[in-house]
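Protocol step 4 of 6: structure prediction from sequence.
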Amino acid sequence: MSLNSTPSADRIHIGIFGKRNAGKSSVINAITGQSLAIVSDVKGTTTDPVLKAMELLPLGPVVMIDTPGLDDEGELGALRIQKACQILNKTDIAVVVVDGTVGMTKEDDAILDRIKAKDIPYVVVMNKLDLAADGAQNIIGDAANAKMSDQKNVIWVSSENKTNIYELKELIASQVKTDDQSHKIVGDLLEYGDLVVLVVPIDSAAPKGRLILPQQQTIRDVLESGAVSIVVRESELADTLAKLGTKPKMVITDSQAFEQVAKEVPEDILLTSFSILFARYKGNLKSVAEGARCLDKLKDGDTVLISEGCTHHRQCDDIGTVKMPGWIKEHTGKELRFEFSSGVEFPMDLSRYQMIIHCGGCTLNEREMKYRLKCAADQGVPMTNYGTAIAYMKGILERSLEVFAS
């Protein structure tokens, strides 16, 4: 897989924050070496967060996020500032750009406090070194450093003449944890030569001519571990297992085929789903497993939020808006209300919901998925995902968790 084909959710998300005309867009263009963001002397040129997937050495595949100015004005300006702050929920590394001719301001202090509160690695860029008066670098730099918990996070640059841009890229790269590369979907559960069967239904809701992202990523992870993957439809599973001549280490299924697959896979073969694997991959498996068990606590009149991380064209048998509500009603026997959200529009106020069922979150990075889970936990609303909920409703959740020895 080339860097260019790395899914957005697996890229490091670098958020650029700062006041209008601090030079955020100019810094982005200097870092990337291309005209990625619009540069203008007019305040407020960037009115909405702009995301761009690209390669940034020495980091590799990243998503750069240019945000509106933190000092925007008026009713629309307040909404833009709110959007900029929401970007922190998906930011792996925050870059705060400060106008070096002015120094740290209350807006810079405020965003830095938010960044620290969310425990996000950060870099403070004192921009416009070429315009700062003689001695301003030391004076303003000392003032800025006094506000930082780590003075090594501050760097002076000039986006105009490219001074210290290379050093800035190195500083940003140094914020990445060295153990991030060991993060696996399923590879750490496999040994070289293991046989894995993946069950992928091809129905009216399946994308034409391709597999969905979780399936692609899982196959890639299996191959990287040195294991062997066999991909079949649920209709060919039983015949395939009989023909293999050797017992597979594991069967991984699409959640919608969970019930049928569980009946056809012998008990001595490990069985789980793509959604359950991705729940662990995003770092929240225990939470969503506990959330699934709360389905039995729903009462008549309760409202369930069904949320998806991406937006897509709805099919007549769409899993989120059609199948999932039907399965939940059948399992609980209750008269329930359902609301739906997709993309970035995850509600901040969850008080009207008694439960949240989320998709596998393949298009969301780990930080944003954990943010959504924490929002639910903080407001006392149980949350699970599609595959884990389906496994619980079909009575096979405990079996599907046996693949994780711990």
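Step 5 (inspection) to follow. The radius of gyration is 24 Å.
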